[in-house]
Design brief:
With 163 residues, this protein is of the alpha/beta class. The chain folds into two domains: 4-123, Rossmann fold (3-Layer(aba) Sandwich), CATH 3.40.50; 131-163, no CATH class. Helices cover 45% and strands 20% of the residues. It contains eight helices and six strands; from the N terminus they run E-E-H-H-E-H-E-H-E-E-H-H-H-H. It has a six-stranded mixed beta sheet, with helices on both faces. Helix 3 (59-68) crosses helix 4 and helix 6 packs across helix 7 (143-153). The N and C termini lie far apart (47 Å). The relative contact order is 0.13.
Length: 163
Protein backbone atom coordinates (compact mmCIF):
# COMPACT_ATOMS: atom_id res chain seq x y z
CA UNK A 1 0.00 0.00 0.00
CA UNK A 2 1.30 3.45 -0.85
CA UNK A 3 2.32 5.80 1.94
CA UNK A 4 0.24 8.93 2.18
CA UNK A 5 0.27 12.04 4.32
CA UNK A 6 -2.83 13.06 6.27
CA UNK A 7 -2.64 16.69 5.09
CA UNK A 8 -2.05 15.69 1.45
CA UNK A 9 -4.81 13.10 1.16
CA UNK A 10 -8.15 14.03 -0.35
CA UNK A 11 -10.92 13.27 2.16
CA UNK A 12 -12.72 11.10 -0.41
CA UNK A 13 -9.60 9.37 -1.72
CA UNK A 14 -10.09 5.74 -2.80
CA UNK A 15 -6.98 5.03 -0.71
CA UNK A 16 -9.07 5.49 2.44
CA UNK A 17 -11.48 2.75 1.38
CA UNK A 18 -8.80 0.05 1.12
CA UNK A 19 -9.35 -1.02 4.73
CA UNK A 20 -12.01 -0.50 7.41
CA UNK A 21 -9.48 0.82 9.94
CA UNK A 22 -7.85 4.22 9.53
CA UNK A 23 -4.51 4.65 11.33
CA UNK A 24 -3.04 8.08 11.83
CA UNK A 25 0.62 7.39 12.48
CA UNK A 26 3.63 9.48 13.47
CA UNK A 27 5.65 10.14 10.33
CA UNK A 28 8.85 9.14 12.11
CA UNK A 29 7.59 5.66 13.07
CA UNK A 30 8.84 3.93 9.88
CA UNK A 31 12.37 4.97 10.89
CA UNK A 32 11.98 4.24 14.60
CA UNK A 33 10.29 0.85 14.38
CA UNK A 34 10.02 -0.45 10.78
CA UNK A 35 8.57 -3.81 11.86
CA UNK A 36 5.72 -2.24 13.81
CA UNK A 37 5.06 0.18 10.96
CA UNK A 38 4.89 -2.70 8.45
CA UNK A 39 2.38 -4.48 10.68
CA UNK A 40 0.21 -1.37 10.81
CA UNK A 41 0.38 -1.01 7.03
CA UNK A 42 -0.99 -4.56 6.73
CA UNK A 43 -3.88 -3.86 9.12
CA UNK A 44 -4.86 -0.27 8.37
CA UNK A 45 -5.03 2.53 5.89
CA UNK A 46 -2.05 4.47 7.22
CA UNK A 47 -1.93 8.23 6.96
CA UNK A 48 1.33 9.75 8.16
CA UNK A 49 1.28 12.96 10.14
CA UNK A 50 3.86 15.19 11.79
CA UNK A 51 2.60 18.20 13.75
CA UNK A 52 6.17 19.51 13.89
CA UNK A 53 6.39 19.57 10.10
CA UNK A 54 2.78 20.43 9.24
CA UNK A 55 0.00 22.56 10.62
CA UNK A 56 -0.73 20.89 13.96
CA UNK A 57 -4.49 21.41 13.75
CA UNK A 58 -5.35 18.08 12.18
CA UNK A 59 -8.76 17.76 13.83
CA UNK A 60 -10.73 19.38 10.98
CA UNK A 61 -9.10 17.18 8.36
CA UNK A 62 -9.66 14.07 10.47
CA UNK A 63 -13.32 15.01 11.04
CA UNK A 64 -13.79 15.56 7.29
CA UNK A 65 -12.23 12.20 6.42
CA UNK A 66 -14.43 10.40 8.92
CA UNK A 67 -17.58 12.23 7.80
CA UNK A 68 -16.81 11.64 4.11
CA UNK A 69 -16.27 7.92 4.74
CA UNK A 70 -18.63 7.23 7.64
CA UNK A 71 -20.22 4.31 5.79
CA UNK A 72 -16.77 2.73 5.38
CA UNK A 73 -14.41 3.55 8.27
CA UNK A 74 -15.21 1.35 11.27
CA UNK A 75 -12.47 2.56 13.60
CA UNK A 76 -9.67 5.09 13.88
CA UNK A 77 -6.35 4.39 15.53
CA UNK A 78 -3.71 6.94 16.45
CA UNK A 79 -0.18 5.56 16.85
CA UNK A 80 2.53 7.95 17.99
CA UNK A 81 5.91 8.02 19.65
CA UNK A 82 5.49 8.27 23.42
CA UNK A 83 6.93 11.40 24.97
CA UNK A 84 6.77 13.53 21.83
CA UNK A 85 5.07 16.85 22.57
CA UNK A 86 4.08 17.26 18.92
CA UNK A 87 2.72 13.73 18.49
CA UNK A 88 0.42 14.22 21.45
CA UNK A 89 -1.61 16.67 19.36
CA UNK A 90 -2.58 13.85 16.97
CA UNK A 91 -4.30 12.08 19.85
CA UNK A 92 -6.04 15.27 20.93
CA UNK A 93 -7.08 15.89 17.31
CA UNK A 94 -8.96 12.59 17.07
CA UNK A 95 -10.76 13.36 20.34
CA UNK A 96 -11.58 16.81 18.97
CA UNK A 97 -12.82 15.34 15.66
CA UNK A 98 -15.28 13.23 17.63
CA UNK A 99 -16.47 16.35 19.42
CA UNK A 100 -16.83 18.28 16.13
CA UNK A 101 -18.80 15.45 14.52
CA UNK A 102 -21.05 15.14 17.55
CA UNK A 103 -21.03 11.37 17.48
CA UNK A 104 -19.02 8.54 18.99
CA UNK A 105 -16.01 7.43 16.96
CA UNK A 106 -14.68 3.95 17.62
CA UNK A 107 -11.09 4.91 18.30
CA UNK A 108 -7.97 3.61 19.92
CA UNK A 109 -4.94 5.52 21.04
CA UNK A 110 -1.51 3.88 21.08
CA UNK A 111 1.98 5.05 21.94
CA UNK A 112 5.28 3.41 21.09
CA UNK A 113 7.26 3.36 24.33
CA UNK A 114 11.00 3.81 23.95
CA UNK A 115 10.66 3.09 20.23
CA UNK A 116 9.78 -0.56 20.91
CA UNK A 117 6.63 -1.42 22.83
CA UNK A 118 3.15 -0.57 21.56
CA UNK A 119 0.83 0.37 24.43
CA UNK A 120 -2.81 1.36 24.28
CA UNK A 121 -3.79 4.59 26.02
CA UNK A 122 -7.29 5.32 27.29
CA UNK A 123 -8.95 8.25 25.46
CA UNK A 124 -9.57 9.77 28.89
CA UNK A 125 -5.80 9.90 29.45
CA UNK A 126 -5.50 11.95 26.26
CA UNK A 127 -8.17 14.32 27.53
CA UNK A 128 -6.64 14.56 31.02
CA UNK A 129 -3.27 15.54 29.52
CA UNK A 130 -4.89 18.80 28.39
CA UNK A 131 -5.80 19.72 31.97
CA UNK A 132 -2.57 20.30 33.85
CA UNK A 133 -4.29 20.95 37.17
CA UNK A 134 -5.68 17.37 37.02
CA UNK A 135 -2.24 16.05 36.06
CA UNK A 136 -0.86 17.97 39.05
CA UNK A 137 -3.35 16.27 41.38
CA UNK A 138 -2.40 12.86 40.02
CA UNK A 139 1.30 13.61 40.52
CA UNK A 140 0.65 14.73 44.08
CA UNK A 141 -1.15 11.43 44.76
CA UNK A 142 1.47 9.25 43.01
CA UNK A 143 4.69 11.27 42.95
CA UNK A 144 7.05 8.32 43.51
CA UNK A 145 5.50 6.31 40.68
CA UNK A 146 5.59 9.31 38.32
CA UNK A 147 9.23 10.12 39.15
CA UNK A 148 10.28 6.48 38.65
CA UNK A 149 8.51 6.19 35.29
CA UNK A 150 9.86 9.53 34.05
CA UNK A 151 13.37 8.48 35.04
CA UNK A 152 13.02 5.33 32.95
CA UNK A 153 11.71 6.99 29.80
CA UNK A 154 12.52 10.71 29.78
CA UNK A 155 16.02 11.84 28.92
CA UNK A 156 14.96 15.42 29.71
CA UNK A 157 13.86 14.36 33.19
CA UNK A 158 17.11 12.53 33.89
CA UNK A 159 19.17 15.49 32.64
CA UNK A 160 17.14 18.00 34.68
CA UNK A 161 17.94 16.03 37.84
CA UNK A 162 21.66 16.54 37.09
CA UNK A 163 21.38 20.33 36.84
Amino acid sequence: MERAWLWSTWVKSPLIRQRKRLCIVSACLPNINPDLFAKLENECVVLLACPERENPTHYGKIASIIRSNEDWIEEVWVVTVDGSPHCYTLHASVNEAEYILGKRIVRKHFVVVDGKELREVDPVAVRVARYLHIVQQLIEQNRELVENELSKHSLEHRKSKQL
